[in-house]
Specification:
Elements (H helix, E strand, L loop, with lengths): L12 H12 L1 H14 E2 L1 H28 L5 H9 L4 H38 L7 H21 L1 H28 L14 E2 L6 H7 L2 H6 L5 H4 L7 H29 L4 H6 L3 H10 L1 H35 L6 H4 L10 H15 L8 H27 L14 H19 L15 H23 L9 H6 L4
Antiparallel strand pairs: 1-2
Amino acid sequence: MGYPRKLTRRFQAFDNFAISFTVINIISGIFSGFGFGLNAGGPSILVFGWIGVSVMVLFVGASMAEVASAYPTSGALYFSAGKLARRHKGAWSWYTGWLNFVGQVGGTAATGYAAATFVQAFLTLQWPSYEPTGHRTVLITALIIVVQGLANTYTVHLVAVLNRISVWWLLIGLVVIVGALTVIPDQHQPASFVTYFANNTGFTSGLYGGMLGLLVASWTFTGFDASFHMSEETVRATVNAPRGITRAIACSAIAGLLLMLALVYAVRDYDRVAAADAPPVQILIDGLGVGTAKALLLVVIGAMLFCGLANLTSNTRQIFAFSRDGAMPGSRWWHSVSARTRTPVKAVWLAVGCSLVLVLPGWWSRTAFTALVSVNVVGLFLAYGLPILLRLRLGDDFAHGPWHLGRWGRPVGIVAVAWIVFSSVLFMLPHAAPLTVTSFNYAPLALAGVLAVATLWWFTSARRRFHGPVGYGRPDEVAAMDLV
């Protein structure tokens, strides 16, 4: 791909799959977004929306996997955009990279925020006198993200081990939670309950309220580009990276549907659960009792912490690669690699700092979580869509890698781009009515702010020096530069 090797290839096929499966993290995504879905469409959107979004995301993932097989680098999306564009390679690469950056930062922030919310739910069960507040949520989120940054700085080998453990934590946790919700409660909702629709968003249009509920599944299915970003640390990346992407999505779709059904059918009093501060926790308490609910809540919190750790790891690899080509302020800092760990430590702390900035509005905003989720979903999926669009424009000129879709590549790519455009517009719209300072969806402002800075910088200076991914020389010259 034209780069000297700086990162050690320590990831096997399972490790590459594990990091995307962990970042998708069905337990974290479903538990954190379930309450929003109950009020934006109810069981019908939670279940059938999950199935529909899973299919659409699999189209996106398959198209991305085809590109990943052709360009297996840490730069991933922005690198491939620069290589696939016929003209204006620098601009395509530039905007793809910045969208990917803000989307991943949003993912790290949203996952940490979700974990902090459920930590407070556990503390409330353990000590009833504890009072959860928005300020405490922000502070706990900051602590979580900083600890994850320290782990990526000082215990890199442990992080790799934790990524492997996380898969089994998710799978075993899923079996335990689904089994408990299926067997223990003395009553369940009737089979027809999955068709129940509810619109408690404040908007008069049930169609609009129901479409907003698709955010639950879309938020869960983000971050599978992690397998792409870890390519330079993966053995046989041209095959294992695309397999990691598609397998992570497919496994998450099936396992997530089982978890979604278990939670939906365990709802006892719909109105009471939908109005709760943490609806999934209320479901666990109603069906399993406080003691069991607390134990399973620890499983959920653990899954969220694993998810945030993997997301931060992927985030730093994107920053490392983008900076390697001089596309970020202070690039020489962010693409430097620690001599001890062979990882981009400074990039870790840039990701941590930017995530903390995105979390700050949670100090006053009651829609902070859904705004963070929107930043994550829209930023990432637009970054996913640009290389896929460019691959479609190339047509038969696209030089595919060992893993490819053959004649299905074009129709799959068209569906993927159409879904990305639709969902990106939808999730930038208001999430609650009436619109106030505390209910405003600030995701458009966050994304617009980053893109405004990127655009200003591009036209004032970057377009004269940034022309896309940098080539360091011929393959034999690059091989001579290998540092590991």
